[in-house]
Amino acid sequence: MITFASMKVIKNEPIISKEECAGSLKNILDALYVLNGKWKLAVILSLVQSSKRFNELQHEVTGISSKILAKELKDLELNDFIKRNVYPTTPVSIIYEATEYSLTLKKVIGELSTWGEQHREKIKQSMRRQS
After folding, report:
1. What value, to the nearest 5°, has the Cα angle with vertex 40 and ends 36 and 45?
2. Number of domains comprising the chain
3. Which keywords annotate this record (predicted)?
4. What is the reported pTM?
């Protein structure tokens, strides 16, 4: 994986090989393919906090429709980020929980949160200057 710290810098220009660049791009595209959309990380984050039923998830992830939530849950289960537990009660109980694999996103979610906060502040400052 290429990090900014590992890149050689000549006159403030990072030098990376064509292969390294292509490899990094492929890795990023793979990650974005699996985590695409605006809801997947929010659903994962909600389930990392605690296991939930469908309606609890929909209530916590504000703004998501039941149709989209159902699709996202299927995608996340397919990629082993969540587990769907079916309990033979009357009526049937279904509880969703985060898997150990979803915890591998901890750093990614943390970095996105930090960047999002910085970006929000940048936009606020930009709007203040325009006023």
Report:
1. 140
2. 2
3. DNA-binding, Transcription, Transcription regulation
4. 0.77
Q: Which two tokens stand for residue 8?
A: 């050689």
- Asked if residue 107 and residue 54 are part of one domain, the reply reads yes
**Who's near 53: CB < 8 A, 6+ residues apart?**
93, 94, 95, 96
Q: Confirm if 82 and 47 have CB atoms less than 8 A apart.
A: yes
Cα dist. 36→20, 22, 29, 33 in Å?
23, 20, 10, 5
Tell whether 107 and 125 lie within a shared domain: yes
Among positive and negative, which fits the CA dihedral 13, 17, 18, 22? negative
Write out pLDDT tens, residues 68-78: 999 999 999 99
Q: Are 96 and 57 in contact (CB under 8 A)?
A: yes
Residue 11 above 60 pLDDT?
A: no
With tokens 């082993």, the residue in question is 80
Position 22 scores a pLDDT of 81
What is the identity of the amino acid at 85?
Answer: N
